[in-house]
Amino acid sequence: MFDSELHIAESSDYIKATPVRTEGVATGAGQKVAVLDTGIDYTHKIFNEAAGTVEAYDAAQADPTTVAWPQGQVKGGYDYMRNDADPIENDPAVPTEEDSPTSHGTSVSHLVTGIAPDVELYVYSVCGGGCPSAAQAAALESAMDPNGDGDISDRVDVINMSLGGEFGDTLGNESEATKVTVNIENVIDSAADYTPPKLIAAEFSVKENTATGTVIGQLESVTQENTLEIAEYLVKSSTNTAFSVNNNGQIVVANSAVLDFEAGNNIATLMVIAIDKLGNTSDPAAITINIENVVDTDAEQPAPVPTPTPTVTQASSESSSGSLAWFALLAAPFAVLRRRKHK
Question: Average pLDDT, whole number, for the chain?
Answer without folding.
Answer: 82
